[in-house]
Amino acid sequence: MAKVLVGVSGGVAAYKAVEFVRLAVLAGHSVRVIQTPASLRFVGRATFSAITGAPVLVSEFESDPSRGCWPGEELPEHAPISHLALVENADVFVVAPATANLISRVAAGSSDELVSAAVLAANCRVLVAPAMNNRMWENPATVANVATLRERGITVLEPGEGQLASHGEAGKGRLIEPRELLAELDSAGGRSDFRGVRVLVTAGGTREAIDPVRFIGNRSSGRMGAALANAAASRGAEVTIICANSSIPTSSDVKVINVVSAAELGDACDQQFPNCDLLLMAAAVADFIPTAAADQKIKKSEGVPTIGLTASPDILAGLAGERRADQTVIGFAAEHGGDPLANARTKLKSKQLDALVLNDVSVADIGFESEENLVTFISADQELELARGPKLDVAHSILDQIKILGTNPQKG
Ligand SMILES: Cc1cc2nc3c(=O)[nH]c(=O)nc-3n(C[C@H](O)[C@H](O)[C@H](O)COP(=O)(O)O)c2cc1C
Prior knowledge:
Elements: E1 3-8, H1 14-26, E2 30-35, H2 45-52, H3 82-89, E3 92-98, H4 100-108, H5 114-121, E4 125-130, H6 134-138, H7 140-151, E5 155-156, E6 160-163, E7 170-174, H8 178-187, E8 198-204, E9 208-209, E10 215-216, H9 223-234, E11 238-244, E12 255-259, H10 262-272, E13 278-281, E14 288-290, E15 309-311, H11 315-321, E16 328-335, H12 340-350, E17 355-360, E18 372-373, E19 375-379, E20 382-385, E21 389-390, H13 391-405
Parallel strand pairs: 1-2, 1-3, 3-4, 4-5, 8-11, 8-13, 11-12, 13-16, 16-17
Antiparallel strand pairs: 6-7, 9-10, 14-15, 17-19, 18-21, 19-20
The structure holds flavin mononucleotide.
Residues 9-13, 36, 38-39, 99-102, 131-132, 136, 165 line the site of flavin mononucleotide.
């Protein structure tokens, strides 16, 4: 997990930075926060300090009780200069929200307070998430400043569109949502052990039409698949995700293909699978589909309908059966009741998978719709329970195990 420095400047969206920092800590990142003096008018440093468990600095002249270190690190004997040490020790520096003023200071190379001085001194990856009124965002001065930052290698994320803080106003300038910012952070994380690997992820749960308004679905949220996609992208992979009815954000460099039904997911997989080195089949695909969907809404007045079901084709087994020798195929199984390990082993073998990630969804608080997961990684010669944690951490642990498997994507 990354050591993240967050710079907060003085806009209304500073309250969203609190949520972003909370999510980043929850995802397992170690976070330190620095603030501009103006930002203190919006959110106090006690909030960030409580969430991160680390002191929050506002001036380059105040001493840092943590001496440029992140929570849990051993303090150096020598007290360093904060605006230099913090960026030297960070893996990623996220400025959120970035005001028009801060962006202009950074573009001008100004360093008259801690956050802009830290940006000027940064040699780590810098992500800037602007937030301001749409007229400020569209002003040619801001447009030119943003272009300058981008030319210098700083990643400036596009703000969102919608309602703005000023009463009754809407337009482009909203701070990117905290979850999306977290996905961008994960993508900027710095590891590159999957560079050059083309990863195909399926996520979410398919829906099978009963009639134009009703469907048979399942409880999969797509979080685990999105976490796998983000984790792989952050480690340098070229990632495509086929999302079945999931709107969990993925980082901007993940290609997203949206589908609804098992048949659509199967078609998308058929198209994408030949171009991937590693398939992570995390979607919950319907096992049974209505034999025939009505083309008009079934009327309640016509009584209780009988819905015939047919077994849907096993997409994963089909893909695994036709794969090339240089492709790795990982299945995911949500088991409930019975003997989950035995069922998973049977699937691993019958579907000819390289490994299977078992999720016992009868355990409370994990799996479907939950932020955390606890899985067992099963391959031909091992069964390994991975540490329980946020889905992004679990995703990284799964990728670590795939590396250890030593199948083709990691050989190069
Ligand atoms: C209520 C209020 C809300 C503001 N919101 C924003 C904002 O969302 N974005 C922005 O660029 N400036 C905003 N400003 C203006 C900045 O606070 C001002 O430019 C300040 O100098 C920014 O300082 P900093 O960049 O050092 O944090 C706001 C000002 C006020 C009074």
